[in-house]
Write a structure and sequence with these properties.
0% of the residues lie in helices and 38% in strands. It has no helices and five strands.
């Protein structure tokens, strides 16, 4: 996948970032932070993250992408 997908669900109060195709998700695991979920493929690589209970408040959402190197 050449693109990163960022999905904000206002009603579900979640923010999801995919680094690979969502269809490749094999398992999702909560982290020690109850509001963060890691989605992994069959090889155990993290291909997405979900932030639960995400509320940006009144601030308009924007996204900035920076590539290092």
């Amino acid at each position: 996948m050449a693109a990163i997908r960022v999905i904000y669900d206002r009603e579900g109060e979640s923010l999801v970032v995919w680094f690979d195709e969502p269809a490749r998700e094999a398992v999702a695991r909560e982290t020690e932070d109850d509001d963060l979920v890691l989605m992994k493929d069959a090889r155990g690589r993290v291909i997405g993250i979900e932030r639960l209970n995400f509320d940006p408040g009144e601030t308009p959402l924007s996204c900035t992408f920076e590539a290092a190197g």
